[in-house]
Known about the structure:
Elements: E1 13-17, H1 20-23, H2 32-44, E2 49-53, H3 66-83, E3 88-91, H4 95-101, E4 108-109, H5 119-126, E5 130-131, H6 140-143, H7 147-169, H8 174-187, H9 194-213, H10 215-225, H11 230-242, E6 246-248, E7 260-262, E8 265-267, H12 278-291, H13 297-303, H14 311-319, H15 330-335, H16 337-352, H17 363-369, H18 378-389, E9 410-411, H19 413-418, E10 424-438, E11 444-451, E12 456-462, H20 463-468, E13 478-487, E14 495-504, H21 505-510, E15 515-520, H22 523-530, E16 536-546, E17 551-555, H23 564-572, E18 576-579
Parallel strand pairs: 1-2, 2-3, 3-4, 4-5, 6-8, 9-10, 15-16
Antiparallel strand pairs: 7-8, 10-11, 10-13, 11-12, 13-14, 15-18, 16-17
Amino acid sequence: xxxxxxxxxxxxxxxxxxxxxxxxxxxxxxxxxxxxxxxxxxxxxxxxxxxxxxxxxxxxxxxxxxxxxxxxxxxxxxxxxxxxxxxxxxxxxxxxxxxxxxxxxxxxxxxxxxxxxxxxxxxxxxxxxxxxxxxxxxxxxxxxxxxxxxxxxxxxxxxxxxxxxxxxxxxxxxxxxxxxxxxxxxxxxxxxxxxxxxxxxxxxxxxxxxxxxxxxxxxxxxxxxxxxxxxxxxxxxxxxxxxxxxxxxxxxxxxxxxxxxxxxxxxxxxxxxxxxxxxxxxxxxxxxxxxxxxxxxxxxxxxxxxxxxxxxxxxxxxxxxxxxxxxxxxxxxxxxxxxxxxxxxxxxxxxxxxxxxxxxxxxxxxxxxxxxxxxxxxxxxxxxxxxxxxxxxxxxxxxxxxxxxxxxxxxxxxxxxxxxxxxxxxxxxxxxxxxxxxxxxxxxxxxxxxxxxxxxxxxxxxxxxxxxxxxxxxxxxxxxxxxxxxxxxxxxxxxxxxxxxxxxxxxxxxxxxxxxxxxxxxxxxxxxxxxxxxxxxxxxxxxxxxxxxxxxxxxxxxxxxxxxxxxxxxxxxxxxxxxx
Length: 580
């Protein structure tokens, strides 16, 4: 066969990494068929060259023997050669591997560090094989052993020397220039050559095109690819919100096993819920397609195979709100899961024995298997949802605290960050993730991933703030953070935001009110607040009354019992109340 390689124009390279993950199947070398399907796909997509990346060429890969690498690569190269007329390139750090594979008319060697045996250069020359320079691991003494290698590597070193002198001549400190170029040589141990760069550039262009013109489809495919990575799913979810895409949250009667978009709606994947098996939920969705929506929980239990609804899967679906349209009391459903499993097995056994349960879908029986208890509180409901989905999807925890935002002058993070006139503020945010790390000196610090009602952002806290607030820094907890912004005087370029104080919003909400001042506009409003202040308590009450005929400031002799719920009721009647 004649494998023509055009060296004067840019060609499209398909990258085929031969690693244990892609090659082994149950510890056996029986994945050739799968690999050849991938090769066929790449050729149909129009690639000009197939680049075979060996395990030894990957950064951080485990060391494997030459025999093992040849054993992996040889069947693949041989099979491609038998089936297709297309140039091949090879990435390997082992000269013996390249020497063996050169017999199969390899067109490009991407790893010059493999050429430790300089006799191999003569074989390469005779085989019309090209070398893409990636590495510089040989000393000048070794270079002199072979003039071809010597010329190539000397050109590279002379170029770097010229660049270093150029830096020095342009006012850059000699030590700084030297340190920069000292970093270049180790990087060359694994740097992208032109063939890789071209392939990645094309992929970048394609993904940018899809993200721009087909954002819902692109994000659905991306989320399905990372369906088990909740951190990634959280990032994609924030992007969906930023793009104002309508999201259908987990629903047993609407959503699918994968992430999908239809009719301008984005359906969250049931398979993306923690502990919900993809295969099991696919079977549930298939049953819905065949026989219509589930009309009730009893109907659901009658139709779904008990193998597809174990305890963990049902817990995940309930916590994520997938049954809300059948029964919105999540705690009631959660506590009833053992009953659901027992009922499902009984139905399945009756069907297997060809018996009919005359009362199988009776509403009264459904009431008997579902616990009659109150639903979780707002914060508990969202906390369970966070456990199942990895972020908040049905509501935001801060919404329960909005009523006290004015009392503490709460600002949103984006406004504070973008407003150069604001030097300090309080923000309210819910903690999504905390990563604790240590400085070079061994001091602890943490990176907080937070969300407020408008964005997701990260803040650093140092050891003193971390140790002081460790008890309240729990994922899912809502906080008030006092922030201070400092901006560098040098061209006003560098901005740093420091966390000065952290307080639990839950503690603030439940904290007794020490003092409240009512600003009243009429005697009618005075009558109104008197209805809410009959009992003695711990709150000092001050009243300012200003109308056409009166202008009074006074304080009640006895402290009264008043909570935030009462304050909010009065505020809803447009009565001003200021907490101190």
